[in-house]
Specification:
- The complex is a heterodimer.
- By secondary structure, chain A is α/β, with parallel strands linked by helices.
- Chain A has one domain: TIM Barrel, CATH 3.20.20.
- Helices cover about 40% and strands about 20% of the residues of chain A.
- Chain A is built from nine helices and twelve strands.
- The longest helix of chain A has 21 residues.
- Chain B is mainly beta.
- Chain B has one domain: Ubiquitin-like (UB roll) (Roll), CATH 3.10.20.
- Helices cover about 10% and strands about 35% of the residues of chain B.
- Chain B has a five-stranded mixed β-sheet with strand order 2-1-5-3-4, covered by helices on one side.
- In chain B, a hairpin with a 2-residue loop joins β1 and β2.
- Chain B starts with a strand and ends with a strand.
- Classes of the chains: A alpha/beta, B mainly beta.
- At the A-B interface, β4, α2 and α3 of A face β3 and β5 of B.
- β4 of chain A pairs antiparallel with β5 of chain B, so a sheet runs across the interface.
- Chain B: It holds the Pfam family ThiS.
- Chain B: This is Thiamine biosynthesis protein ThiS.
- Chain B: InterPro entries: Beta-grasp_dom_sf, Mopterin_synth/thiamin_S_b, Thi_S, ThiS/MoaD-like.
- Chain B: It comes from Thalassotalea marina.
């Protein structure tokens, strides 16, 4: 079970967020239970007197170092390409990585990505040496444009961030998979339950990125394990070749020599 | 001159640089923490703090790592 992100092979298909957990300790245990090697985080203004952020940062550093993991900074909260590019550069300096989860939000109501600004930011960041993981809608042409710009990884949403609504448009997601067979596709945002992850893997997606579904579960650590199992199940289902759906019923039990009925005249 | 650091107004001398502004905003211990800086929404690398001059009304953002999804 491996996932390759910009040439880096990982032994797990889950990318996990570090926000919204009931406590830093639960966050740490949930991330470890998930098996994920990629942890997302962000940058924000903070009162330097506050030690809360530094403690979380220390926790995340410890987790990543212990498990040969990777940091994936995001550009959450950015609404223009310029803001996102600036935040990406700041993140690269602090986190010493050229990976960036690129978020450029176009609407506050559903936190829908702005496709125009996203493309502008992607082009600038790739030119500056970044390895961009764009968070985008499930629009095939947008995904194609991102791929054409040089994004090896593309991350369409399942549904709006934090809704837990799961895969709103399976047809769109399947079409992206079909039309971009060589892109690394990671389903990002809106995942609510393990079966959503399983379905994404059965579609042939390469991985998932999630946060709320684990952090907001009654038992985040156990839910992280559930998602890991769901990913494994979905991947095995995909590689095993799912049967063709049929319009009519076909008996599973052999009908030859069926006793008792179908007697002439009965 | 007055500048803004994370939205708060600071009064600095007219020759102040980004490094001076950070000294006004952060203690020496806090300056050892992980942070990054943008001046008027443009990234300023650590190597340029001392030679980047400020002007009245400038806005400095000093950002720290936090959890994120």
């Amino acid at each position: 079970m491996s996932l390759t992100i910009y040439g880096q092979q990982l032994n797990n298909r889950m990318l996990i967020g570090s926000a919204l957990y009931p406590s830093p300790e639960i966050m740490k245990n949930a991330i470890l239970a998930s098996g994920s090697q990629v942890v997302t985080l962000s940058l924000k203004r903070q009162n330097p007197q506050s030690q809360g952020g530094q403690q979380i940062w220390q926790y995340i550093q410890d987790i990543v170092q212990q498990h040969q993991g990777y940091l994936l900074p995001n550009t959450a909260g950015c609404k223009t390409a310029k803001e996102a590019v600036t935040l990406a550069k700041m993140s690269r300096e602090i986190f010493n990585t050229d990976w960036i989860k690129l978020e450029v939000i176009g609407d506050d109501y559903n936190l829908q990505p702005d496709p125009i600004e996203l493309l502008v930011a992607t082009e600038q960041l790739i030119a500056d040496g970044f390895k961009v993981l764009p968070y985008c809608t499930d629009d095939l042409v947008l995904c194609q444009r991102l791929y054409d710009l040089g994004c090896q990884v593309i991350m369409p949403w399942a549904s709006p961030i934090g809704t837990g609504k799961g895969l709103m448009n399976p047809y769109n997601l399947e079409t992206i998979r079909l039309r971009l067979p060589n892109a690394t596709l990671i389903l990002d945002a809106g995942i609510g339950k393990p079966s959503d992850a399983c379905l994404a893997m059965e579609m042939g997606y390469d991985g998932i990125l999630l946060n709320s579904a684990i952090a907001l579960a009654d038992n985040p650590v156990n839910m992280a394990k559930a998602f890991a199992l769901a990913l494994e199940a979905g991947e095995q289902g995909y590689v095993s070749g799912v049967m063709q759906e049929r319009q009519t019923a076909h008996p599973s039990t052999p009908t030859l020599d069926t006793p008792f009925w179908h007697h002439p005249g009965a | 001159m007055n500048i803004f650091i994370n939205g708060h107004q600071f009064d600095l001398n007219n020759q102040a640089t980004v490094a001076d502004a950070l000294s006004a905003f952060l203690s020496k211990e806090q300056q050892k923490l992980s942070f990054a800086v943008a001046l008027n929404s443009d990234f300023i690398g650590k190597d340029n703090y001392s030679d980047t001059a400020l002007s009245a009304g400038d806005s400095l953002d000093v950002l720290f790592p936090i959890q994120g999804g």
